[in-house]
Amino acid sequence: MQKIRIELGRRVRQLRKANGWSQEELGERADLHPTYVGGIERGERNVSLENLERLARAFGLSLSQLFDFARGKPYKADTLRAKIVGLLARRDESDLECVLEVLGALDRWKERS
Protein backbone atom coordinates (compact mmCIF):
# COMPACT_ATOMS: atom_id res chain seq x y z
CA MET A 1 0.00 0.00 0.00
CA GLN A 2 2.89 2.37 0.57
CA LYS A 3 3.79 2.25 -3.13
CA ILE A 4 0.44 3.70 -4.20
CA ARG A 5 0.73 6.45 -1.57
CA ILE A 6 4.15 7.39 -2.96
CA GLU A 7 2.87 7.35 -6.55
CA LEU A 8 -0.15 9.46 -5.59
CA GLY A 9 2.12 11.88 -3.76
CA ARG A 10 4.32 12.28 -6.82
CA ARG A 11 1.26 12.86 -8.98
CA VAL A 12 -0.15 15.50 -6.63
CA ARG A 13 3.23 17.27 -6.41
CA GLN A 14 3.67 17.25 -10.20
CA LEU A 15 0.18 18.61 -10.81
CA ARG A 16 0.63 21.25 -8.12
CA LYS A 17 3.98 22.39 -9.51
CA ALA A 18 2.72 22.30 -13.10
CA ASN A 19 0.05 24.76 -12.02
CA GLY A 20 2.54 26.95 -10.16
CA TRP A 21 0.81 26.49 -6.80
CA SER A 22 2.40 26.26 -3.37
CA GLN A 23 1.24 23.59 -0.93
CA GLU A 24 -0.61 26.37 0.87
CA GLU A 25 -2.48 27.37 -2.27
CA LEU A 26 -3.41 23.79 -3.11
CA GLY A 27 -4.55 23.37 0.49
CA GLU A 28 -6.83 26.39 0.17
CA ARG A 29 -8.26 25.21 -3.14
CA ALA A 30 -8.87 21.67 -1.83
CA ASP A 31 -9.90 22.76 1.69
CA LEU A 32 -7.00 20.76 3.19
CA HIS A 33 -4.31 21.87 5.62
CA PRO A 34 -0.98 22.60 3.89
CA THR A 35 0.92 20.22 6.17
CA TYR A 36 -1.56 17.49 5.22
CA VAL A 37 -0.88 18.26 1.54
CA GLY A 38 2.85 17.92 2.27
CA GLY A 39 2.23 14.56 3.93
CA ILE A 40 0.31 13.38 0.88
CA GLU A 41 3.11 14.48 -1.43
CA ARG A 42 5.68 12.60 0.68
CA GLY A 43 3.52 9.47 0.63
CA GLU A 44 3.00 9.58 4.39
CA ARG A 45 -0.78 9.95 4.38
CA ASN A 46 -3.44 7.35 3.70
CA VAL A 47 -5.85 9.74 2.00
CA SER A 48 -9.60 9.31 2.37
CA LEU A 49 -11.84 9.11 -0.67
CA GLU A 50 -13.41 12.43 0.30
CA ASN A 51 -10.01 14.16 0.36
CA LEU A 52 -9.02 12.54 -2.93
CA GLU A 53 -12.16 14.01 -4.46
CA ARG A 54 -11.24 17.43 -3.04
CA LEU A 55 -7.79 17.21 -4.61
CA ALA A 56 -9.18 16.10 -7.97
CA ARG A 57 -11.71 18.94 -7.97
CA ALA A 58 -9.01 21.48 -7.07
CA PHE A 59 -7.04 20.36 -10.14
CA GLY A 60 -10.15 20.24 -12.34
CA LEU A 61 -9.79 16.48 -12.78
CA SER A 62 -11.97 13.42 -12.23
CA LEU A 63 -10.82 10.85 -9.68
CA SER A 64 -9.74 8.52 -12.46
CA GLN A 65 -7.65 11.29 -14.01
CA LEU A 66 -6.03 12.00 -10.63
CA PHE A 67 -4.97 8.34 -10.45
CA ASP A 68 -3.74 8.21 -14.03
CA PHE A 69 -0.07 8.27 -13.03
CA ALA A 70 1.20 5.34 -15.09
CA ARG A 71 3.54 7.58 -17.10
CA GLY A 72 5.04 9.16 -13.99
CA LYS A 73 4.25 12.71 -15.05
CA PRO A 74 1.06 14.65 -15.71
CA TYR A 75 -0.48 14.48 -19.13
CA LYS A 76 -0.40 17.78 -20.93
CA ALA A 77 -4.21 17.99 -20.86
CA ASP A 78 -4.17 17.59 -17.06
CA THR A 79 -1.66 20.41 -16.72
CA LEU A 80 -3.65 22.67 -19.02
CA ARG A 81 -6.89 21.86 -17.20
CA ALA A 82 -5.27 22.66 -13.85
CA LYS A 83 -3.97 26.00 -15.15
CA ILE A 84 -7.39 26.92 -16.53
CA VAL A 85 -9.07 26.08 -13.23
CA GLY A 86 -6.50 28.20 -11.42
CA LEU A 87 -7.14 31.18 -13.67
CA LEU A 88 -10.92 30.85 -13.45
CA ALA A 89 -10.86 30.65 -9.66
CA ARG A 90 -9.76 34.28 -9.47
CA ARG A 91 -12.49 35.64 -11.75
CA ASP A 92 -15.83 37.16 -10.86
CA GLU A 93 -19.19 36.03 -12.16
CA SER A 94 -19.28 38.37 -15.16
CA ASP A 95 -15.83 37.18 -16.29
CA LEU A 96 -16.95 33.56 -15.96
CA GLU A 97 -20.06 34.26 -18.05
CA CYS A 98 -17.84 35.78 -20.74
CA VAL A 99 -15.53 32.75 -20.70
CA LEU A 100 -18.55 30.46 -20.96
CA GLU A 101 -19.77 32.36 -24.02
CA VAL A 102 -16.36 32.11 -25.67
CA LEU A 103 -16.13 28.37 -24.94
CA GLY A 104 -19.66 27.87 -26.27
CA ALA A 105 -18.76 29.67 -29.49
CA LEU A 106 -15.58 27.61 -29.81
CA ASP A 107 -17.55 24.41 -29.26
CA ARG A 108 -20.12 25.33 -31.92
CA TRP A 109 -17.34 26.28 -34.35
CA LYS A 110 -15.53 22.94 -33.74
CA GLU A 111 -18.77 21.00 -34.34
CA ARG A 112 -19.17 22.65 -37.76
CA SER A 113 -15.60 21.84 -38.78
Structure description:
It is a single chain. This protein is mostly helical. About 75% of the residues lie in helices and about 0% in strands. The protein has one domain: Orthogonal Bundle (434 Repressor (Amino-terminal Domain)). The protein contains 7 helices and no strands. Helix 2 packs across helix 3. It is elongated, with a radius of gyration of 16 Å. The model has no long low-confidence stretch (mean pLDDT about 90).
Briefly say what this structure is.
The chain is mostly helical and 113 residues long. Helices cover 73% and strands 0% of the residues.
Keywords:
434 Repressor (Amino-terminal Domain); 113 residues; single chain; 73% helix; mainly alpha
Name of the CATH homologous superfamily: lambda repressor-like DNA-binding domains
Rg over CA atoms: 16 Å
Q: What structural class do helix, strand and pairing data support?
A: mainly alpha
Number of helices: 7
Question: What characteristic shape results from the CA principal axes?
Answer: elongated
* CATH architectural designation: Orthogonal Bundle
Summarize the amount of helix as a percent range.
Answer: over 70%
Mean pLDDT: 88
Largest sheet, if any?
Answer: none
CATH class: Mainly Alpha
**Total strand segments:** 0
Q: What name does CATH use for the topology?
A: 434 Repressor (Amino-terminal Domain)
Low-pLDDT stretches are none
Percent of residues in beta strands? under 5%
> How many structural domains?
1
| H/E series | HHHHHHH
N→C terminal distance:
47 Å
